[in-house]
Design goal:
α1 packs parallel to α2, α2 packs parallel to α4 and α7 packs parallel to α9. 41% of the residues lie in helices and 21% in strands. The strands form 3 sheets. It has an 8-stranded mixed sheet. Strands 9-10-11 form a 3-stranded antiparallel sheet. The protein has 15 helices and 14 strands. By secondary structure, it is an alpha/beta fold.
Length: 372
């Protein structure tokens, strides 16, 4: 469930997010519920494992809308006994006021966008909260929700390896069960992208420093009992994001809201779905019967490539038998031995994994593994 609105646009963000002075919450609620009804009619009899409210900034949503969406979903699918219902939240004082309403509405997991644990860097990243607000929000979230995760960004401007180690150890001192730790990337079309192109974004680490930060992150989190289960995600055992694992395991998911993508299998055929980026365009489309701007069949070779790329991001890797069932010529087996000798992948029976050294260079590994 994609909520496209934010209080402000962060300079590094290339997600589909918009700043709007006025939002018709009733219109948005009606549109989300209409899309749930449409998809529910297509997928009767399925079990729902997760609901994920992403954005944008979903913690700006009226809690009543969140509750209505969860209740509508319950009308169309059987909820798994351990269903995971996650809402992304920013730790501002305004948004914290909504936390109890989200819990009462059915949310059982919160993913908090803290991003940095010093105020200077929060300002550079365009964040609207302070470190103190982040700590208060984290304490409140832990008192309300069964599961709490938070995000940090590293390889920031003028950040040293020692400074990142100190910040990461401070984060771990809060005893998180799940951490998402992302390297700052400069994306085209963002404010940071424009500054970087103009030579005005100073102090970014050289590639070697960023690589050192990555491997330091792996070591510290592993020693703390929250190892990486995916390139940027770390968790205690059994506290992995079940929703994200659906993406990485090439499961089915419905993408609802502006800019949301989906993957859905119907009668043995796998489809990719897309929606319009502009909020009002999406609302108009829903009022005409469907929020989808695209539904395309995914050819078997493309599905296999997606399965390989996404699965190799995870520590568990991929099942080669399942890969072969999707497409029988999905991988160049002659290259596997070479990559094993380079310690970039390993093969355990029928399970293919990228090693810790291999995960940072997955694109190169994929180029080698894909058939010519």
């Amino acid at each position: 469930m994609h909520w496209p609105f934010c209080a402000s646009k962060c300079p590094y963000c290339d997600f589909n997010s918009h700043v709007s002075a006025t939002i018709d919450h009733n219109a948005w609620k009606d549109a989300y519920l209409a899309e749930l009804r449409r998809y529910g009619a297509e997928t009767q009899g399925r079990v729902l494992d997760s609901i994920y409210f992403g954005g944008g900034t979903p913690s700006l949503m009226n809690p009543k809308i969140v509750a209505a969406i969860i209740e509508e979903a319950r009308q169309h699918w059987t909820f798994a006994n351990d269903i995971e219902i996650t809402l992304e939240a920013n730790p501002s004082s305004i948004e914290m006021q909504n936390f109890r309403g989200y819990k009462d509405g059915g949310v059982n997991r919160v993913s908090m966008g803290i991003q940095a644990l010093n105020n200077d860097d929060l300002r550079k990243l365009g964040r609207l909260h302070s470190v103190e607000e982040a700590k208060q929000a984290l304490t409140l979230a832990k008192s309300l929700f069964e599961r709490v995760s938070f995000d940090l960004i590293y390889a920031r401007q003028d950040q040293s390896l020692d400074a990142w180690e100190a910040e990461l150890r401070e984060a771990i001192s809060y005893n998180p069960a799940h951490l998402s730790l992302y390297q700052l990337t400069i994306e085209p079309g963002t404010a940071f992208g424009a500054r970087h192109e103009a030579g005005k974004l100073k102090g970014l680490p050289i590639d070697e420093m960023a690589t050192d930060m990555y491997f330091l992150t792996q070591r510290i989190t592993r020693e703390a009992g929250i190892p990486a289960y995916e390139v940027s995600n770390h968790a205690q055992i059994d506290d992995e994001s079940r929703h994200n694992l659906i993406y990485w395991r090439s499961g089915d998911w419905l993408g609802i809201g502006p800019g949301a993508h989906g993957r859905i299998t119907l009668n043995g055929t796998r489809y990719a779905t897309e929606t319009a980026l502009a909020p009002n365009t999406w609302l108009d489309a829903v009022s005409c019967g469907s929020g989808e701007s695209l539904r395309d069949t995914i050819p078997a070779d493309e599905w296999a490539t997606e399965f390989l790329l996404m699965g190799l991001r995870t520590a568990e890797g991929i099942d080669l038998d399942r890969l072969g069932s999707i497409h029988d010529n999905a991988v160049n087996h002659n290259k596997i031995k070479d990559l094993i000798e380079l310690s970039l992948i390993d093969l355990d029976g029928k399970t293919l994994r990228a090693t810790e050294n291999g995960r940072p260079v997955l694109n190169g590994i994929l180029r080698e593994l894909l058939p010519d």
